[in-house]
Each structure stands twice: as C-alpha cells, then as structure tokens.
C-alpha cells in the first residue's frame, strides 16, 4: 500500500532526491508535473513524498519556500554562518557589508566566523577585531574560535533549522565544516594566488545533521547581485540605519543630501562606521547602473 510522508530534501544528484523523514532517508524521484510546471525541487525544500512498497518513491508536493539562497541553491535557510578570512583572500569590510546587506534583504540571520587568524600578524589581527567589534555591537555574533563554536553548535541550531555556510571562495568553508563534523571528508584546496581567490572545491549541496537541525556546505561565491533590490529600500537592510531613521527629518529619508538626517549625523559623530556609509553609497550606485561593478566581477 502506498503512503505519503513529509520530510526535507537533504541531497540531490542526477535526478534523485534524498529526503530525510521521521523514519530515515528515502531516495525519491520527482513526478513529471514538476518539470511541466518548470518547478525544480531543491535541497532544503520541505516536501511530501509518496512511498511505494516496490521502492518507487516519488516527490508529490513541494511546500512554499521562505527563501532560496546561493549557487547552487539551498531553500528555507534560517541562518547563515558567514566565513570571512583574515588573509588569503584579504579581509575586506566591503565584501563583509555586501554579504550582510544581501542576507538582510533575504531576511536571514547571520553569524560571522573569522578564519585564518593564525596567518596574520598580531597587529593585523587586532585591527581586524576592532573592525568586527562594530558588527558585534550591531548584534551580529562574531566567532573567532571554531572549537568553542563547534561544541555549542548542536544546541544552538533549533530543531529542523537549516544553517548554511557562505563566504568568498578560499575563505575556508570546507575546512570549517571538516572541523564541525569530523566524519566529513570535504576536499580543500590552496588559494589561487594569481587571482587572490579560492578554487571552488565544493560542487554539490548536501545537508548534514547537526543536533536536531541541518548544516549545508555550499560553494563559495564572491559576486553578489544587488540589482533586484529596490533602491529606496536598500537603506533598510543596514540595521543601524533602520534603527535611527525614525529620527530623520523626512520620512523615507535615503540618507543622501536630505537635511537633518540622523544617519549622516551619526556618521559625522563616528557612531556609525564611515565604511558602512561609503559601502551603502557604492551599493546604491550599483543598483542605479543595474549591473555589478567591474572591480567586483
């Protein structure tokens, strides 16, 4: 007798979908209706599957997603663990702000992990930590020690939550996931010194059980496209801008040349980081031009 159960797609390969159910993992295929409707099931999707006693299991329904993030994509992400390297690739506040703004737009919480701290000098590390203290004050969790984080991660991730790694290629995501789940043997690769970018070493997405939730390992990507964001909404994705914007003179203030703008006032007082405001202006320019700047391609 056929029966239907619900679960989460934890991996996808060659047209097959492994679905984690309450009874374990079931390998399934998608019904033709998905192709007809141009709907592609994705890792992270909450789904309904039909179990066949002869072993012919099928996806019959994909539930509505809260988001779709990454390349290749993960659906229904609850939290991003953003891996930013201290060096190789060089630490970049601009890149950090791009990621944080993008995920703010996607309504996904972010924790920041600084990798490769052992490869920089003490003065360099101190400077980086001083910069990251600003983000910690904004409410972002900043992690420097993966051992402590790994010990607590199983209890931090709530039941059925999906966390995904993100960050520039070569920042050390696969190395981190090796630490977080020692049974994994993800391939790691040396940085490409000629491009100062990492070689993509992770080519598929898979969800791994961490406590009662899931962690996804995804390929790194350095280019984030802001052009779908409405330009007059961009300021809302800078958390400190949004918090104080009610004190601006004009409703809907874009924090440009408007008089009595509280954001610009706090930038002048150094209570809002100058680099955050500068990066906001760069992102506005990118959206206005409708394309990624050449120096970020």
What does this structure look like?
This protein has 297 residues and is of the alpha/beta class. The chain folds into three domains: 3-62, OB fold (Dihydrolipoamide Acetyltransferase, E2P), CATH 2.40.50; 68-217, P-loop containing nucleotide triphosphate hydrolases (Rossmann fold, 3-Layer(aba) Sandwich); 231-296, Probable gtpase engc, domain 3 (Ribonucleotide Reductase Protein R1, domain 1). Helix content is 28%, strand content 25%. It contains eight helices and 15 strands. It has helices at 32-36, 93-105, 122-138, 146-156, 173-180, 239-244, 262-268, 274-289, and strands at 3-13, 16-21, 24-30, 46-51, 58-62, 68-69, 74-75, 79-85, 109-115, 141-143, 162-166, 191-192, 197-198, 206-210, 213-217. A six-stranded mixed β-sheet has the order 10-9-8-11-15-14, sandwiched between helices. Helix 3 (122-138) links the parallel strand 9 (109-115) and strand 10.
What is the topological layout?
Elements: E1 3-13, E2 16-21, E3 24-30, H1 32-36, E4 46-51, E5 58-62, E6 68-69, E7 74-75, E8 79-85, H2 93-105, E9 109-115, H3 122-138, E10 141-143, H4 146-156, E11 162-166, H5 173-180, E12 191-192, E13 197-198, E14 206-210, E15 213-217, H6 239-244, H7 262-268, H8 274-289
Parallel strand pairs: 3-5, 8-9, 8-11, 9-10, 11-15
Antiparallel strand pairs: 1-2, 1-4, 2-3, 4-5, 6-7, 12-13, 14-15
Helix pairs in contact: 2-8
User: Based on CA inertia axes, which overall geometry fits?
Assistant: globular
Main β-sheet: number of strands, strand sense, barrel status? Answer: 6 strands, mixed
Task: Round the Cα radius of gyration to an integer and report it.
Answer: 21 Å
Structural class given helices, strands, pairing? Answer: alpha/beta
Can you give the mean pLDDT? 85
- Give me the CATH architecture of the largest domain, please: 3-Layer(aba) Sandwich
Uncertain runs: 183-202
Topology, number of strands: 15
Binding site for Zn(2+): 248, 253, 255, 261
Main location: cytoplasm
Domain CP-type G: 66-224
Keywords: Cytoplasm, GTP-binding, Hydrolase, Metal-binding, Nucleotide-binding, Ribosome biogenesis, RNA-binding, rRNA-binding, Zinc
């Amino acid at each position: 007798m056929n029966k239907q159960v619900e679960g989460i797609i934890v991996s996808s390969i060659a047209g097959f979908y492994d679905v984690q159910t309450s009874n374990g993992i079931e390998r399934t295929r998608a019904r033709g209706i998905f192709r007809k409707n141009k709907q592609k099931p994705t890792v992270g999707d909450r789904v309904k599957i039909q179990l066949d006693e002869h072993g012919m299991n099928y996806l019959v329904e994909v539930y509505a997603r809260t988001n779709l993030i990454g390349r290749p994509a993960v659906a229904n992400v609850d939290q991003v663990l953003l891996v930013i390297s201290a060096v190789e690739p060089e630490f970049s506040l601009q890149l950090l702000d791009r990621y944080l703004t993008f995920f703010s737009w996607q309504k996904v919480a972010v924790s920041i992990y600084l990798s490769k701290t052992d490869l920089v000098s003490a003065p360099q590390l101190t400077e980086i930590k001083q910069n990251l203290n600003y983000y910690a004050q904004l409410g972002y969790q900043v992690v420097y020690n993966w051992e402590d984080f790994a010990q607590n991660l199983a209890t931090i991730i709530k039941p059925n939550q999906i966390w995904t790694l993100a960050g520039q290629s070569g920042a050390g995501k696969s190395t981190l996931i090796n630490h977080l789940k020692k049974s994994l043997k993800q391939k790691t690769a040396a940085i490409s010194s000629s491009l100062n970018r990492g070689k993509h070493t992770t080519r598929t997405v898979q969800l791994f059980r961490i406590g009662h939730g899931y962690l996804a390992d995804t390929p790194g990507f350095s280019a984030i496209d802001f052009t779908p964001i409405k330009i007059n909404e961009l300021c809302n994705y800078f958390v400190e801008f949004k918090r104080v914007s009610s004190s601006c003179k004009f409703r809907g203030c874009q924090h440009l040349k408007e008089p009595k703008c509280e954001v610009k006032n706090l930038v002048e007082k150094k209570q809002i980081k100058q680099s955050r405001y500068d990066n906001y202006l760069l992102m506005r320019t990118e959206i206005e031009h409708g394309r990624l700047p050449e120096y970020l391609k």
